Amino acid sequence: MGNFLFTGGRFLDTRAGVIKDGIDLLVEGDRVKEVSDTPIKSASAQRIDLGGKVLMPGLIDAHIHIFLSEVNIQHLAGVPLTLLAAKAGVLMRDMLMRGFTSVRDTAGGDWGMQIASDTGLVDGPRLFISGMAISQTGGHGDFRQRTQTEIECNCCSGLTYTTRIVDGVPEMIKAVRDELRKGANQIKIMVSGGVASQSDPLDSLQFRLDEISAAVEEATNWGSYVCAHAYSAEAVKRAVGQGVRSIEHGNLIDQAAVDLMKEKGAFLVPTLVAYDSMRRRGRDFGLTEYSLAKNDVVLEAGLRSLDMCRKAGVPICYGSDLLGQLQDDQSREFLIRSDVMPAMEIIQSATTVNARLVQKEGELGELVPGAYADLLVVDGDPSKDLNLLQDQGAHLSAIMKGGRFYKNRLGV
Predict the structure, then answer these.
(1) Are 250 and 239 within 8 A, CB to CB?
(2) Which tens digits make up the pLDDT trace of 275-298?
(3) Are 47 and 113 members of one domain?
(4) How many domains does the chain have?
């Protein structure tokens, strides 16, 4: 890290949703020190002339899985945690090189990988962890085969390291407290069936209301929150009605669910690229026909749910939820959403809206004094052309996280 003065470029103001010219930005250490529409003077900073390129905050993905390194997650059974961590390091590096300087892991990401990224042992994004996602017996996170009665030891099976099974209020209270003890930034629960799981119907309702409420109370007491995997309208209403703060996916919602989310101030985290990618490429990597059939159901409804929430004023976040070999499609979510959202709104979903979600408003998602120096230099205006955020970061001349360059072809 050092001190850097960025000048001569165009500035993407994500809070206002506009591109500004004539803005200087000073980075000192890991933070933004000053942003000004008049020239900034600094005796210690290295001056960087952007030559008309666009300076913008680093992107945030609010739904990723660093440890789910296989499309068919059953292939992770028996994979040791050492190999899981090594693969996670590669996936994290690739996310950072696409411009995602912060990500929220929603099942499995742990304190160890968070520290590895924070201290530079792994080149990766700033990591917000859920620890092990919480599932009921037979729910979306119960990965046992139908003939299994016991859960494998999670020290020698990558699959079982990502979720834990609880039943009843006392077990839920203990599980939430335990994940928070282990460093979770937020708690993830499964309240409906899912695409990747092999035993639960997509429209099944999971956890009782008192179990959901117990999770919310414990997370709130810690200053944290609960996010919930949910597809059907009823699952969404049950979760939001008990105080769940963010709905992951939400493809099959109805207007009543949307209205309740608006009333309660809940966030929606759509993950449309996951279904698009699984339809195009999932079979090539061993995704089962059962999962592909469920995927078709949620794929067709995805844009509709996003459009309904947008019109109602529900905060819309950016998530990808890609598994394993499909994670190179992470930035394609920008293009898919452009059918129903303007480009600047999509960029805001991956910056300011997601910063609010992860409880880091003013520190992430925008370049303001006091914010982390997480920034991108783009070879053009992404608010006019979202293709500039594609191609694995090829159109990014610089990527900085916490005041450190991880990519720099600016000639300095």
Answers:
(1) no
(2) 899 888 888 887 778 778 877 877
(3) no
(4) 2
Look over the chain and give the mean of its residue pLDDT values, rounded to a whole number.
93
Task: Report which residue type is found at 33.
Answer: K
The residue segments making up the domain with residue 121 are 59-330
Which region among 33-37, 191-195, 234-238, 267-271 has the lowest average model confidence (pLDDT)? 191-195
Q: What is the mean pLDDT of the segment spanning 149-174?
A: 81
Residues in a beta bridge with 55 = 11, 377
Whether residue 123 has pLDDT greater than 90: yes
Alpha-carbon span 187 to 51, nearest angstrom = 43
Question: Per-residue confidence at 364, pLDDT binned at 50, 70, 90?
Answer: very high
Q: Which two tokens stand for residue 371?
A: 């914010």
Extended beta strands in 3-129, E state:
3-7, 10-13, 18-21, 24-28, 31-36, 46-49, 54-57, 59-64, 100-105, 126-129
Under 8 Å between Cβ of 244 and 226: yes
Task: Find out whether 317 and 357 touch, Cβ atoms under 8 Å.
Answer: yes
User: Are residues 224 and 205 located together in one domain of the fold?
Assistant: yes
Residues 264 and 390 in one domain: no
pTM for this predicted structure: 0.95
Amino acid, single-letter form, for residue 283: R
Two tokens, residue 100:
């995602």
Output 160 or 36, whichever has higher pLDDT.
36
β-bridge partners, 110: none
Considering the domain boundaries, does residue 188 fall inside one? yes
Instruction: Compute the chain's Rg from CA coordinates.
Output: 21
DSSP 317-351: -------GGGGGGTTHHHHHHTTTS-HHHHHHHTT
